[in-house]
Design a protein that fits this description.
Radius of gyration: 26 Å
Strand content: over 45%
Helix content: under 10%
Number of strands: 55
Number of helices: 1
Shape: globular
C-alpha cells in the first residue's frame, strides 16, 4: 500500500459517500456525492469531482460541482483522453450525464439521455472519441430491456436519434476493449427466478449482438460489474447458491472480446460478495471491492485470487444507535467497526438511570459476515436485539449480565430480504415484542414480515405474522406497542404506482386485528407539487399512536417545481394520530407538521416520554458557507400540538450529529442516542453519544439551564429543569463549548 495515510479530498461538512474513480490519461478523477446523513431518503444530492495525480497529490484544492440531483439512484464516472464522463440515474427514471476536462465541468446544464418510466442503472464506457451509455427500462413488470446511446465525447452529441435496443434484461453494465463494447445484464429466463447473467457485444457503429449461448451464472444474481483487463473482460457478480458458504456469494469470470468464456461456467468463487463499486484493472491484475476491502484477480492465465486486503478504515467508527430501557436503566446498541477482520459488528453498553455507562461496551454479534443496523426492545424481563447479518435478519435476547441468548442469535427471515431492509421492534411489558422487517421471497412480491414474542419467551417460540397485504410493496417498516395491540407502519407503492403510508394492527398472539391495512396517507396523483417520500416512524402513548413520515413539498408558495425542482422542493416531516383501534384522527387536511424550517430532513424517530411525544430527526442546512447535519427534536402533545418552535438541537454542539433515537426509562427519564463525527483524527469516523433528558416536560417552552461543565453538563435548548449528560460510548469526544464527562470503551 503506497498511501498508508489516506489522501484527503476537499473537506465538507456534508456526508460524502459512494466515491467512484476514473483515470483520464493524466490524472485520477474522483467523483462523489454529498448529502444529508442518509442519502437513501432522497434529498437533493450534490455531485462533486477532484483530480489526484499519479503520485498521489491532490490537484484540485476546491472540488468541481457537477450537478445537484433531487432523487439520485446511481452514478458512475468513466474517462479517456483527458475527458471524464459522469453519468447518473434518478429514482424517477431520468438518465443524465456531464463531461469534465482539466478539472472543469464542460456541461453546466446536464445532458438528458433519457426520461422513461422504469429507467435506471445507467452506466457508461468510453473509447478514444465516443462513449456508450447503457441503462435498463421496465415500463411494466417483467418487460425490461437494455438500451443505449453512443455519445461523441468532444461535443456531447448523440450519435443516433433513437436509443439502441441492445437486449431484453435489466441491471446493465458496460466495458470496452477499445474497438467494441461488451454489455452485461441480468436476464430473467425462467418465470420466478432472480435473473441469469447474459452479455451482448455492441460494435463501434452501434450494432448489437447478443451472445445468447453463453452459460455464465445460475439464477438469483445481483450487483454485477464489468471491466477490461487488457486481454479479456472480467465480470463479477453476487449470486445465491446452495453450495455457497454464505447466503450471497461472489463470483468472477473472464469473457474474450469474441464472446467466449475463458473460465468454467459459473465462474470462480470470490472470498466474499462484491460491492457495487467499479473494478479497477492494471494489465491483467484487477481489484474487486468486497465488504471488508478488495481482492486482487490475476487473469493472465487462470483466474487467480489474492487474500482479501483491508484498504482503510476509520478507528472504531460507531453509528446507527438503538436504545431501549433495561434492568439497570437503559441499553444502547450500535454498529461498530473496531474489528478490521469482521467489518461491521454489533456492540452494546448498559447505561444506568443517571445516564452513566454501567461497565464497558461488549459485543452482541461479531461474525465473519457484517452485522448492521441494530434495533433493540425491552419486554419487562430482558432486552431483544435485532440486526441484519448479510442477507438475513437475526435476533437474540440480551440478559442483564451481557450474555447473548442464543449466542449469534437466531435467523428470523431466511435469505431473501429487500435491499434496504432494516429491522424494527416494538415492545411492552404486557404484549411482549413484535419484530419486523421487509422481505422479497419472489419477484414483485415484497412483504413486511414479523415475529411476535411473549414477554421472556424464547425467540424460537415466537409466532410468525405477515404484516402487509400482497399489494402494499413495503420498503420501510416501523412498529410500536400500544395497550391492546402493536401498530406496524410502512411505506410502499402498489399496482397503481401511488406511494402510500399504511399500517396493520397486530395482537399479542400475532393475529391481525383488521383484515385489511389501515390507509394513513396516499399520494394524490393530481397534486404533482407534493410527493410522498415515506420513512415512517411510530410511537404509542398507550391509548393512541403518533406516526410520522417525510413528504416533498414546495419550499415557498408559488415555487414552480417543474421549472426548478432542485431549489423549489423541501423535505417536510409530517404526522398523523391514530386511535388504538386503528382509526386515523388526522386526515390529509389536518396533518401534524413537525418540521418545515429546514429544507432537508431525514432519519426520523419517535418515542413517548410519559407526557408527550419526542419527535427526532436529522436536518441538513447551510452553515459557515458549508452544509451541516444536526440532530433535532420537538415535543408533540397528545392533541397533536407542537410544543417547541423552533426545533431544538440534540447535540447542542458544532459537531455533525445525526440518526437520533430515544427511549423512556422506568425512572421517567428519556435517554437520547445519536452518532456524531469525531473531531479527533480518524478520517471521518463517528462516535455514538447519549444524553439523558428529564421526562417531566410540563413546561411549554425550552430554556437554558445553568451551565455546570464537567459535572452533569448542561447546554442550550433543553427542557426547563432537565438533567443532561453527554457521553461518548467507545471514545472520548473533544468539545468546544464546555468539557463533558466522557467514558472510554474497550
Amino acid at each position: 500500500m503506497l498511501d498508508k495515510v489516506p489522501i484527503a479530498l476537499p473537506a465538507s461538512d456534508a456526508r460524502q459517500f459512494a466515491p467512484t474513480i476514473a483515470w483520464d490519461g493524466t490524472a485520477y478523477v474522483v467523483v462523489w456525492g454529498e448529502a444529508m446523513d442518509d442519502p437513501e431518503l432522497q434529498p437533493p444530492v450534490d455531485l462533486y469531482a477532484a483530480r489526484i495525480s499519479a503520485d498521489g497529490v491532490l490537484i484540485d484544492g476546491s472540488a468541481a460541482h457537477i450537478a445537484t440531483v433531487t432523487d439520485l439512484n446511481y452514478f458512475q464516472a468513466t474517462a479517456t483522453g483527458g475527458t471524464t464522463l459522469v453519468s447518473w440515474a434518478t429514482a424517477t427514471g431520468r438518465i443524465q450525464l456531464a463531461r469534465l476536462s482539466d478539472g472543469a465541468v464542460l456541461d453546466e446544464t446536464p445532458i438528458d439521455v433519457v426520461m422513461a418510466y422504469g429507467a435506471w442503472s445507467g452506466a457508461a464506457s468510453c473509447m478514444t472519441a465516443s462513449c456508450l451509455i447503457v441503462w435498463s427500462t421496465c415500463p411494466t413488470a417483467g418487460t425490461c430491456s437494455v438500451q443505449g446511446h453512443r455519445i461523441d465525447l468532444a461535443s456531447g452529441a448523440f450519435l443516433e436519434e433513437q436509443p439502441l435496443a441492445i437486449a431484453e434484461g435489466y441491471w446493465s453494465r458496460v466495458a470496452t476493449d477499445g474497438s467494441a463494447w461488451l454489455v452485461a445484464y441480468r436476464r430473467q429466463d425462467v418465470e420466478g427466478d432472480g435473473g441469469h447473467l447474459a452479455v451482448s457485444l455492441v460494435e463501434e457503429t452501434g450494432t448489437a449482438t447478443e451472445f445468447s449461448s453463453l452459460s455464465i451464472s445460475g439464477p438469483w444474481t445481483s450487483w454485477l460489474n464489468l471491466a477490461f483487463d487488457g486481454t479479456s473482460f472480467v465480470l463479477v457478480w453476487q449470486e445465491r447458491r446452495p453450495s455457497s458458504t454464505s447466503d450471497m456469494g461472489g463470483y468472477a469470470i473472464r469473457i474474450s472480446p469474441g464472446g467466449a468464456l475463458l473460465d468454467p461456467s459459473g465462474g470462480v468463487e470470490l472470498p466474499g460478495p462484491p460491492h457495487l463499486g467499479a473494478i479497477g484493472c492494471i494489465g491483467s491484475l484487477c481489484a474487486v471491492p468486497l465488504g471488508n476491502g478488495v481482492v486482487m484477480i490475476d487473469g493472465s492465465s487462470t483466474l487467480a485470487l489474492s487474500a482479501p486486503l483491508r484498504v482503510a478504515h476509520a478507528s472504531n467508527t460507531e453509528e446507527y444507535p438503538a436504545v431501549a430501557p433495561s434492568t439497570v436503566g437503559f441499553v444502547v446498541a450500535w454498529q461498530d467497526y473496531r474489528n478490521p477482520d469482521t467489518g461491521a459488528d454489533i456492540f452494546a453498553s448498559f447505561v444506568d438511570a443517571h445516564g452513566l455507562p454501567s461497565g464497558t461496551a461488549f459485543p452482541v454479534a461479531v461474525e465473519a459476515n457484517e452485522e448492521t443496523t441494530p434495533a433493540v426492545g425491552w419486554d419487562g424481563e430482558s432486552n431483544i436485539v435485532v440486526w441484519r447479518e448479510g442477507s438475513t435478519m437475526r435476533a437474540a435476547r440480551l440478559l442483564a449480565t451481557g450474555a447473548v441468548v442464543p449466542a449469534g442469535g437466531i435467523d428470523l427471515s431466511g435469505p431473501v430480504l429487500t435491499a434496504n431492509a432494516v429491522p424494527t421492534i416494538g415492545c411492552s411489558t404486557s404484549l411482549g415484542c413484535l419484530i419486523g422487517w421487509t422481505t422479497n421471497p419472489a419477484p414483485y412480491d415484497v412483504q413486511a414480515r414479523g415475529l411476535a414474542v411473549a414477554p421472556g419467551a424464547p425467540l424460537e417460540e415466537g409466532v410468525a405474522v405477515r404484516l402487509s397485504d400482497e399489494n402494499s410493496y413495503p420498503y420501510r417498516l416501523a412498529i410500536a406497542a400500544g395497550e391492546q395491540a402493536f401498530l406496524a407502519v410502512w411505506e410502499g407503492g402498489g399496482p397503481d404506482m401511488l406511494s402510500h403510508i399504511r399500517a396493520s394492527l397486530v395482537d399479542a398472539s400475532g393475529e391481525l386485528v383488521r383484515s385489511s391495512p389501515i390507509e394513513i396517507a396516499t399520494q394524490d396523483p393530481s397534486d404533482t407539487s407534493h410527493q410522498l417520500v415515506g420513512v415512517p416512524s411510530v410511537a404509542s402513548s398507550g391509548s393512541e399512536f403518533l406516526t410520522t413520515w417525510l413528504e416533498l413539498a414546495p419550499a415557498e408558495p408559488g415555487c414552480d417545481t417543474d421549472v426548478d425542482p432542485g431549489s423549489c422542493m423541501q423535505t417536510d416531516l409530517v404526522g398523523a394520530r391514530l386511535l388504538d383501534d386503528g382509526t386515523v384522527v388526522d386526515g390529509p387536511g389536518d396533518r401534524v407538521h413537525l418540521d418545515a424550517t429546514f429544507d432537508e430532513v431525514g432519519t426520523p424517530s419517535l418515542t413517548w416520554t410519559g407526557r408527550s411525544y419526542l419527535a427526532l430527526w436529522s436536518a441538513r442546512f447551510a452553515c459557515n458557507a458549508q452544509v451541516c447535519t444536526e440532530a433535532r427534536v420537538v415535543r408533540v402533545s397528545r392533541g397533536g400540538t407542537i410544543v417547541d418552535s423552533p426545533a431544538v438541537s440534540v447535540g447542542a454542539s458544532d459537531a455533525d450529529d445525526a440518526n437520533p433515537v430515544a427511549a423512556l426509562g422506568d425512572s421517567g427519564s428519556v435517554l437520547v442516542a445519536y452518532h456524531r463525527y469525531d473531531e479527533a483524527p480518524g478520517y471521518g469516523s463517528r462516535r455514538v453519544a447519549i444524553r439523558l433528558v428529564n421526562g417531566d416536560d410540563t413546561a411549554d417552552d425550552w430554556a437554558e439551564p445553568p451551565v455546570g461543565c464537567c459535572q452533569t453538563s448542561q447546554s442550550q435548548g433543553m427542557p426547563l429543569g432537565a438533567t443532561l449528560l453527554s457521553v461518548a460510548v467507545g471514545a472520548a469526544l473533544r468539545r468546544r463549548r464546555c468539557r463533558r464527562r466522557d467514558v472510554q470503551g474497550p
